[in-house]
Amino acid sequence: MALTRKGQATRERILEAATDLIARRGVAGTSTEDVRKAAGVSGSQLYHYFDSKQALIRAVITRQAEVPLVPGRPVMGALDSFDALRAWADAAIAHQERNSGRGECTLTSLAGELAPADERSREDLCNAFLRWRSLLHDGLRAMRERGDLVPGADLDELSMALLAALQGGSLLSQTLRTAEPMRASLNAALAYVHSFEA
Amino acid sequence: MALTRKGQATRERILEAATDLIARRGVAGTSTEDVRKAAGVSGSQLYHYFDSKQALIRAVITRQAEVPLVPGRPVMGALDSFDALRAWADAAIAHQERNSGRGECTLTSLAGELAPADERSREDLCNAFLRWRSLLHDGLRAMRERGDLVPGADLDELSMALLAALQGGSLLSQTLRTAEPMRASLNAALAYVHSFEA
């Protein structure tokens, strides 16, 4: 379905409201009626773009997959140097600090809540995580090709470790309401990458 | 309330059923009626031990906090040597492999689902995570006192990094259905600890 410019703006407004509510209350605590009110649209408008709560959730996941790895930050350049990786980690830590450790990550919340239950949404989440991981993988490959990393550096493992550190840090920071877990986990993962410095 | 031996067994059966269902379906997908059926108890029995769904969830969290850091494993000894930490990591990876990456961690699921919404349960989750972290912290302190780790090793950061690696690995392994994230994240965190070897 091709949307008019106005239609796209409405759809985007609904998705923004849904993303924000899910980050704060979880999927179970967010009804389509909540989303409708927050977005300031009518029930028939909402239904026009998303004919079920699941369709809305899946669109939120797909949209978040497009977002750079740290929410609330403008699109980053390639993560293809130690400095760029450090800046990425610092941005994630700063995001938690600004929100007193409540810097919600919509996808982290969704992964905890949906993974066991909803197969189609789980697949969307997989794709979102794999897309993020590929950004890290691309950057690390450029570093290895440039000779910043030793030839034997296992890019699959390193990129997965960085993504897991971001997710684990996010989950614990969200629960403990402090940025310390994010700082500790990203420092550890970056130190691991540094241990393969050429 | 002091429970008879039979009462304790019934309460434990209810908690086991609830823990299992929550790990597989999430909190939102688990009704007290589901728990009642799975545990094979009457409605009045269930209500006798847990007068609300929230009371049941909080008891599940408290019970999981008592569980050693890797579910499905008998209680471990102290995590106070590089070998013990490696065995702990290997057990967590093996747990994901046995379950094709679906080795659900009830607390990881709960953290993703509840943290934004439910303040009392969030505090219970905090306590569970801090308890686990203190097991790691105790082990690392013993290593530092014994001279395995350099005097400057930051035990707060190291123990948090290990716990975040376990949680991030669990979340991603659960979503991607492979043990690779758990392996990558724990290998990275252990390498970080090793970098402080005396």
Q: Into how many domains do the coordinates of chain A divide?
A: 2
Question: Which parts of chain A are unreliable, with pLDDT below 50 for 5 consecutive residues or more?
Answer: none
Main beta-sheet annotation of chain A: none
Q: Per the principal axes of the C-alpha atoms, what is the gross shape of chain A?
A: elongated
The CATH superfamily of the largest domain in chain A is identified as Tetracycline Repressor, domain 2
Distance between the termini of chain A: 50 Å
Do you know the CATH topology of the largest domain in chain A? Tetracycline Repressor, domain 2
Which oligomeric state applies?
A: homodimer
The CATH architecture assignment of the largest domain in chain A turns out to be: Orthogonal Bundle
**Greatest chain-chain interface?**
A-B, 52 and 53 residues
Tell me the structural class of chain A: mainly alpha
CATH class of the largest domain in chain A: Mainly Alpha
What is the radius of gyration of chain A computed over CA atoms, rounded to a whole number of angstroms?
18 Å
Share of helical residues of chain A: over 70%
Average per-residue pLDDT of chain A, rounded, comes to: 84
Please provide the count of β strands of chain A.
0
* Element-level helix/strand string of chain A: HHHHHHHHH
List keywords for this structure.
homodimer; 198 residues; mainly alpha; Arc Repressor Mutant, subunit A; Tetracycline Repressor, domain 2; 2 domains; TetR_C (chains A, B); transcription regulation (chains A, B); Homeodomain-like_sf (chains A, B); DNA-binding (chains A, B)
